[in-house]
From TrEMBL:
Coiled coil: none annotated. It is found in: Cytoplasm. This is DNA polymerase IV. It catalyses: DNA(n) + a 2'-deoxyribonucleoside 5'-triphosphate = DNA(n+1) + diphosphate. Binds 2 magnesium ions per subunit. Its cofactor is Mg(2+). Monomer. It comes from the Bacteria.
Amino acid sequence: MLSLQQRAIAHLDLDCFFVSVECQQDSSLLGKPLLVGGSSDRAVVSACSYEARRYGIHSAMPMKTALRLCPHAIVRSGDMEAYSNKSREVTEIIADKAPLYEKSSIDEFYIDISGMDKFFGSLKWTTELRKTIMKESGLPISFGLASNKLVSKVATDEAKPNGQLEILFGEEKSFLAPLKIEKIPMVGKETAAQLRRRGVETVKTLSEVPVSLLEAWMGKHGISLWKKANGIDETPVIPYYEQKSISTENTFPVDTIDMEFMHAELVRMTEKIAFELRQQNKLTGCITVKIRYSDFETVTKQMSIPYCCADHILLEKVKELFKKLYDRRLLVRLIGVRFSHLVQGNYQISLFDDSQEMIALYQAIDQIKNRFGWEFLMKGTNVVPPEKKHLSRQKEITPYFKV
């Protein structure tokens, strides 16, 4: 295993990704306060331009609040299909050139270029890659280069907008030291407030707190914070494979042609693996539906979709695929659903047209499922009537809304 000194990790982040794509499609938006998100009073801001940020606007802020802060801001509803296509375009550029890369979200990448300095120079190679991405995609992108993923990510944030920054080996602590504690990844408002109550304002102060004391304050999270504050991160770059997937299938006890029952099963399976996506903080970019008939002939059909993990959006696509696929009208032995082309991300970015209530509903449902199990709360159409129980192994469930 390479030592930290031998490692060279680049973190690349497409600047204001959604906003940049919108500006690429409409150049009149350049240099203006732009908000991407739903247009209703109850919608939230999914992304905003740097010009909008000067008014105190940030992502996840209620759109109504954002427009009070900046009444002349321009609002775009968002085009997840365009964003997904651009993300795939940049991924292909990186995959063609990088020895080992990880797609950590729709607009972020880690690249392990350890050993590259012996041939081209790590900084030169990453700089050339950045230029290629900007030239071929037309989008601004920043990068940080360091000995580990943590420091490279923080360096990228400091290099924005549209810049680059290298942190040499041995300079990790001095680079992090003057930064506010919120600059450390995974330090949210609650953690920051807890640390500030104890007089910890900067990363330097955090790094000087005895690790045993931090553990007493925050448990294992305290140990992790101490390591981050000291620039320690041995997390490897995890190779990205497009075929990585989450799937489920059900072989029926009795072959069936009952469309109502199969529809309910599609709802159940889609809901199950969509919940798994959200648990893992991932989005899917491809859906596959599988049918096995009673004569054992197996057929599948798939479609690429804008990155998403919301039940109601995924279910619509699953039903569309099933309708196209089920054309023999024979008894069915098995059906399955698979989500692939996974990237990191949360459901807020795919719910541009949904209100705060819809986002809150998903959060509340997932909290209940986390506590009692995913089958405890399900959609109304997923409930199998008593007369069809012989077709299913389904447990007792509580329906929450009908699809």
